[in-house]
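Reader question, answered in our methods column.
A reader sent in the components of a multi-part assembly and asked whether the whole thing could be modeled at once rather than chain by chain. We filled in our standard form and ran it. Here is what they sent:
COMPLEX SIZE: three components
ENTRIES:
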Amino acid sequence: MNHLKKMSEFNHADLLVIRKNLVHWYDACHRHLPWRENADPYRIWVSEVMLQQTRVKTAVPYFLAFVEAFPTLEDLAKADLEQVLKLWEGLGYYARARNLHKAACRVVSDLHGRIPSRFSDFTALPGVGDYIASAVLSMAFGQAHAVVDANVKRVLARLLCLDVPVNLSSAHRQFQTIADSLLDRNDPGRFNQAVMELGALVCTPAVPACSVCPIADNCCALSAAQIQTFPLRLKTKKIPCHRISTGIVIKNGKLLVTRRKLSGLLGGLWEFPGGKRLKGETARAACIREIKEETGLDVSISSFLTRIKHAYTHFKIEMDVFYCDYMSGEVTLNGPIDYQWISLPEIQRFAFPKANLKFIPLIDQTLNARKVS
DNA sequence: AAGACGGGGCA
DNA sequence: TGCCCAGTCTT
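And here is the structure of the entire assembly that came back:
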């Protein structure tokens, strides 16, 4: 750390070299991804939404299925939210899907189906922030907006030995200013993708491949042998673990599923009813109580199915899943916005959270036969 | 300015 | 396990 010379900006000569080397490297080494086949702003938009906090490898199959189902923005606007969520099932951050669908509807109804070419008009749409607007406008329309994502921040932090943590919200403006100064305005879309591609393929978080980096000569962190020091990052807090009870309520061979409210965690998804265990409460008691509270039904536990562990961003859950027999009562929803009694094969028509998808394959295929006998 | 919001992959 | 990822919205 002794001889580390920190910088807050590039000098002009470095700028030219970095731009040239970066773009040449990108042309030679970039991946061939489905949203790079053309400059269709709709496809680029969809891809950028899916890529938020999500790796390329994860997003690709979702992207292909999504544009297959909705080839154009008009097709997306015409679709039901439930259908959109089903295509998003398992991808996470479901507000992205709700916002993208709402934005598509708004573009069609208010903007003649035209994706805004003005930055401020674009960011006025739900789910479109600085990053999405910069990415789509630069890649589809060639506008000079620098993207700042996690890749860009990591690359810049290393190039300049930046002192500020990348996950400090107040530092974002500083990264944006630096990215703007580095942007190659001759081809902003290609340059933006080049920086992000470098972050994804070469300047990776754990073990960067500095030996093949096209801008290694300009890297402050590398020259100071401090690659592992950057980027700086604030420590994250420990997350709590909740104990959940979930019931597969069976009535005449049909299963009860409920739909979560549109806002908040897993908004709009379907699930098997249940909820958090209270202090000192048994898993079975919590299952019966939660189902009564959410649906108004009285049930009894018939057997234990399995225990599921699942991690969210801010907490973990340990979920005990029980088979329940319907006893009495009519459905009166308190919390969920909808419910249905469904047969086992019908499950695949609904979008479920991952925690539910982990136990759904275990549900006994002979449920119907057993109940009849 | 901090917290909410999913899920997967990797060391 | 803990970290981190082509961010945005709410409070």
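What stands out: Confidence is low (pLDDT under 50) at residues 368-373 of chain A. Residues 47-56, 58-59, 93, 95-96, 99, 126-132, 135, 147, 149-152, 167, 192-193, 196-197, 199-200, 205-206, 233, 236 of chain A lie near DNA strand C (CB under 10 Å from a C1').
Send us your own complexes using the same form.
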